[in-house]
Structures are given as C-alpha cells and as structure tokens.
Amino acid sequence: PQPIYLADYTPPAYLIDGVELDFQLHPTATRVISRIRFTPNAAATSKDFFLHGEGLTLIRASVDGRDITPELVDGGLKADVPDAPFLWEAEVEISPEANTALEGLYMSNGMYCTQCEAEGFRRITYYPDRPDVMAPFKVRIDGDELVMLSNGNPVASGDGWAEWDDPWPKPAYLFALVAGNLVARDDSFTTMSGKEVDLKLWVRPGDEGKTAFGMQALKDSMKWDEEVYGREYDLDIFQIVAVSDFNMGAMENKGLNIFNTSAVLASPETSTDANFERIEAIIAHEYFHNWTGNRITCRDWFQLSLKEGLTVFRDQQFSGDMRSEAVCRINDVSALRGRQFREDNGPLAHQVQPDSFVEINNFYTATIYEKGAELIRMMKVLVGDDAYDKALELYFERHDGEAATIEDWVKVFEDSTGRDLTQFRRWYKQAGTPRVAVSEDWTDGTYTLTFKQSTPPTPGQDEKLPQHIPLAVGLLGPNGDEVQPTQILEMTEAEQSFTFEGLAAKPVPSILRHFSAPVILERDSTAQERAFLLAHDTDPFNKWEAGRTLAKDVLVALITEEDAPLDDYLNAIAVMLRDDSLDPAFRALTLGLPSQDDLAQTLFDAGVTPDPMKIYRAQQTLWQAMAEHLQDLLPRLMAEMEVTEPFQPNAEQAGKRALGLGLMNLLNRLDGGAAAQTLYDRADNMTLRLGALGYLLQAQKGDTALSAFRRQFEDDELVMDKWFSMQVYHAAPEDAVDVTDKLTKDTAFNWKNPNRFRAVFGALMTNPAGFHNASGDGYKLFADWLIKLDPVNPQIAARMSSAFETWRRYDVDRQAMMKAQIERVLATEGLSRDSQEMLGRILN
Ligand code: B3K
Ligand code: ZN
After folding, report:
1. Which pTM value belongs to this model?
2. Are strands 446-454 and 435-443 parallel, antiparallel or unpaired?
3. Which residues fall inside 5 Å of ion ligand 2, going by CB?
4. Cα–Cα distance for residue pair 764/652, rounded to 1 Å
5. Is the ipTM of this complex over 0.90?
6. Quick check: is 394 in a domain?
7. Is 611 exposed, middle or buried (0-12, 13-18, 19+ CB in 10 A)?
8. Average pLDDT, the chain
9. Based on the structure, what is the number of domains in the chain?
10. How far is the CA of 607 from the centre of ligand 1 (A)?
11. Under which EC number(s) is this enzyme classified (predicted)?
C-alpha cells in the first residue's frame, strides 16, 4: 500500500455549495441518491474531477441533468465536467447488512447507523471525501423504521419518511444517519443567549433507565463550554444515539453524536465509578467537538491533532472542574504514560503531526490525542491563563467555518501573545519522549539545578533537536516548608542551568510539578528524599509521583536484586494512608503500584531485559509485604471508607470506594478472599460488586460468584463484557491463555462485536505475565484471532495488533516467537491495509 504525504497536499479542485441526499433504506439494498452543487475552486491547481467511492454500485449519474458514464477507477470515479458551477446527480446501491467493518452505513442490532470519520462517507456515495470540502446538507430518509435521524434540524416527517437540514457547512466525515426502533430521553437546555435547545438521548427500548447520567453530563458540558470558552450551541436540537456495535467510544457528527453503548449508558447497578467518569468525559469530548472539530475542522488528516489534541485538553479541563483536579491529572498522566509513552518508545512512534500515513484510521492514537493535549497544556503554561483565553478567542474568530491547520493554531498564539513559538513547533514534528536528566549543586547559599535533555531516535527520525520545555519547579526547605513556590523554568537548550539565591539551607526540589511537560524525568534520588516529598510536597501531582517512584525503585530492586529494602516505602505509605486530610481518591491512587508494562519499559530503558514473570512476582511480593505491614490499619480505614448514603457516582463517593477496594486488595492477601466474598454478597452497586469479584478471582475463589454474576446479568451486554474481561485480567499467568481460549468458545463470545472482542483480548494485553507466557501460546492465540478478525473488521484488528508493539523489549526466545507470529499474520492472504501497515511498522 502506498503512503500519503502531507507535502503533497493540494487544494480541492471543486468546492460544494450544497448537498441533498435521499436514502431509501433496505438492509441489503439501500439506495442513495445524491444531488451536489459543485463550483470550480479558484485556488485549485487542477481541474480534474474525482470523487471518492468504495464498495458502491453505481446505478446512474448525471451532470446538469444529462446522463453520463463516469470512468470508474481505483477508489472512486472520474468524469468530464463543465468549467463552471454544475449539478451532479448520482444514484448508488449499498448493503448495510454486509458491512461488518462498521465504517460507512451499517446495521447494528437491526438498526441502521453510520460512521464516516475518517473516510467512511465514500462507502455511502461518491463524494470528495476530504475534510477541506465543507457543505450544508439536506437529507431525506425513506424507510419503515420508527425513528429516522440525520444531522441538523428536523424539517418535516411523516409515515415512512423524515427530512433533516443541517445549515452549517461540514465535511462529509461529520455526516450521520440513524434509523431504527429507538426511544428517547428528552430534555432541554437554554443557551447563554436564551435559545432553547431540544436534547434527545436515543436508546433501544429497555435501556431508558440508563440515560439519566449521560443527559446530565451533556447539560453540564454545554454549560461549561459557555462559561469557560464562551461557546454556545448552534442548532435547535442536539441528539445522542447509543449503538452496540461501534469501533471506538463515540463520534461527534454534527448535531447527532453516535455513541458506543459503553460510552453513554450508565446505572449504579451496571456501571462502575470508572465507567461513570469515562462516560462523563466522552460526552463532554464529543460535545466540545462542536466547536473544536466541527465549526473549525481540519484541512486534512495530518492536522488531526488540531481537533483531537485540543478537544482532549478541553475534556480534561472539564473533568478537572467537575471532579478533583489533582486526581484527574494523576489519572491522565498515568494513561499518557501507559499508552502514549509506550507508543513513543517503540516501533509505532510517530509525530503529533505526521508527515505520512498509509491508513488514517491507524493514526487515532494516544500520540495524536493525549500527547496532542499535553502540547496545548504546555502552551497554556508558557503563555499564561489569560493569554491562553485571548488566543482561543482569536482562534474562534479567525477560523470559524474553516478547515484549519496546526500551523494556523500555533500562529494564533504567536499573533495574540507576541511570543515566538518557532522552537515549540518541534513538539508537533519530533516524535519520541524527551528524557530530562537533573543534577543539583549547592555552593555558598546558591542552589543550582542543571537539566540535560535528549530524545532517543524513533523510526525515520534519528536526529533530535532540543525541545522548548516548561519545567514547573518548587523548592522545599529541610523542615518541609515550601521556600520557593512553583516557578516555570523554560528550557530551550540541550543543557541548561537555573540558580536560586537567598536560601538558608539546601532545599529539596520538586520538579515537573503538575507534570508540566510530557517528558521522562531522570533524577537519582534517595528513598528518604522521595518519602520526604510524599509527605510534604504541596503539589498533589508530585506528591503522588514521589510515592510512585518510591514504589518503582522498590519493585525494580525486587526484580533485579537478591534483597530489597522495603521499610522506607512501607512506612511512607502507612503515613500517607493515615493522613485524613488527604482525599481518599488520592490515597487510593498512591496506594497503587506501577503497572507491569510500565516496569517492563523501565527495566528495558535501564538496559535490563524484562522478565514478565519476575515483574509479576515482584508486584505480588510487594502487595503481600504491604498487606502484612498495614494489617492493623486495614479494618479501621476500611470502615471509614464505607459509604452509607445511597449510591451517587460523584467524586467523593467514588474516592471512598476506590480506597476501600484498594485496601481490600491488601486484606485479600491475608484472609484468602473471605472479606471479598462478604462484599460480593452484599454489594448493591457494580463498583463494589466487580471489585469483589476481581479479588475472589485473584484468590482463586471466584467460581460461585462468576456463575451468579452471569445469571444475574446475562441479558446485559455491557455487564457481560465485564464478566469476560475480569476472568482474563485476573487469571494467573499460567492460566491466562487457557482462560482466554475457553472464553472464545463461550456461546456469548460474539467476536464481531468490538466491545466483546476487546473485553477478552484487551484484557489479555493488560495481563502481561499471562500474554507473555514462556510457552508462546499467548502470542499464537492472539495472532489466530487477529487473522480471523481482520477480514471482518480491519480497524479493530489493526488496533489490537499493538499487543505486539513491545516485542523488541523481551528476551531472544520471546522475541523470536512474537516475530514469528507477526510474520504469520502479515503473510495472511488478503490482509487489510490497516493491519499490513501496523504489523509492518511493528516489525521494522
Ligand atoms: N473523532 C472520533 C474518532 C474517529 C475515529 C475514526 N477511526 C471520536 C473522537 O475523537 O471524538
Ligand atoms: Zn475527538
């Protein structure tokens, strides 16, 4: 497959004044009639008329009313057209039922729905399917369905038909259509200028009871975007539809967001606190896209982070405002490290603004999304909050209605602040996670911090230049008082020193507060200093970070040395847990240990070949030591964390449950599952029920609970996803592959459903000791299923192939076994472009 290059961008040859689409719905033979008014683009360099189209049966086409026979070519069609505005009409036939890739128009549970981003619209009709072609759409739907929806405002409807009108010019990737037997939760929102907007959350009959939380999250998001960004909603109606078969979380189609059921349906009995939090964030994210993505869209897919990085940053701000900012930041950074750092340090590393791609769907990555968000966060830190607000005002003013570029974005910051961001632009073009090594000096009352930055080579990019890094630093005195409040040090050189005068004694530095830049900080430090920061740092992020590095040092010692001193860690954790002034959610996070994958990468970076079993055992050893050390504390603290009020999915209650469950993880190692069983039996919400089930599985006492759980939730797909994933996630390393294999043979393993596939194989990816079992069976099973899934749903297969992205970290035997499996998948006849690109990059 041929790559597409950013450098080859040319403006579209024709622009569109308006689009009318008629759909005659039929499961296997839907007719789509398009009427498109084209105008030659004055800025174009070519006059060639090309429309994208894939898997379409062309019935007829005409130009200005005269029938024509277009030339059908690979990926679309060509035709001779006038050098003046003209009307294009075409009729095509498609089969939604045959569409298992879930891209374009497809059926899910008897209901029609669409997914067009990035290039799905070309599977619906012939069209210039590129984001810089924007047009208003009018849609008519004919069919037997009870509910028939599209973008924009409703115009009229009758028995068997409905018409929709979206006045805001949009690219085709934001088109949506939904039709089926649906029921709505209705609500409304009055905007800041007093306009009343209808809100509808559409679900299958039976799911109405799971819509209250999502609706509230939507209203909160609408309010927040007005208050914080001054952005008002711009149609008479905003709709969300929940569908079971969906490749990702959700999609921001103009006025008609389509959601994976897992990203919108919630109830205390069926959803965990983590589910509620994720749902709130995704609803906000998709809603925020209305301005950052839809009103201002991307010129081309190389600009993807323009909308995704910014919208992730906005949803992170929103969650921080709705919940605990500190806890959200810690979770966001953990996710960044877990997914983006992993990507950035392996064969799939790529720029936030890539130069080329083969399949754009492979670039909806943690780098485009989460690292992209970190770049915006850094810009805000560098220019300051007020200047950020002004820059955003200018961005909306200057680019509303446009398909913009990342360069436009950075320029807005330069123009509104007068700052030169030339060097900062490197963050968009240089892949890889910078390492920042710190050393300190204390001479004659002057304290000096010296930083050295370097970024390791990434595929296709050997040489790296210094980045512009905002380092938020504070200093603590020996008694724990802050002697220097947070200050932003701007690092621009490869090596740079900063001095602090007037200190009475050598301070302890707190560096990279609030995780002010997406870098790996390298600082040799003693356990005592880390414990000191855990006890005294005023920056909650760095306070947590101190605990995390302390734990990491202990785990690395457990893995690589005969003997590991645990006392400093155990005592520091005990002090932290006892500190009632700390938010339980914060304490729960600090009680957690770095993941097995994180440890594998840390060892690899230090030149040690990671052994997945040793990593697993070290974690178990440390949990056991913590349990024994803290056993007197557990009953009292667990009692304090009991929530006696009725369930609320808010941060306060969730924090208590998180800490309670974190402590039960320890107790479980002492009582062999007894407390977990009691909790399971009396749990009245999914957070506690699922937590208890996990601990029972861990204690190898889960059989009864598993059957009961299944009986109780058999008819609830989303809960059954949990039933599947828990078993794989909590399987002992030697059992994980067998458990996975057995689950794939379960009658409820509906593998064509992305949620179900991910429930099983995503869980195997997060059980590294199981996946990397020395037999190599995990690799083989995984590869078997990639081969099976690829022809059905290439997007998901390609995405899941990242299970193999870390293969070079491991010992020669494992490397050879993984490589053999990657090659086997790659050798599969007819392998999708999606998987070819991913596995090809992973291998090289
Ligand atoms: N923009 C969509 C993702 C589309 C993925 C296409 N493979 C959801 C989001 O980021 O909000
Ligand atoms: Zn998005």
Report:
1. 0.99
2. antiparallel
3. 308, 311
4. 31
5. yes
6. no
7. buried
8. 98
9. 2
10. 37
11. 3.4.11.2
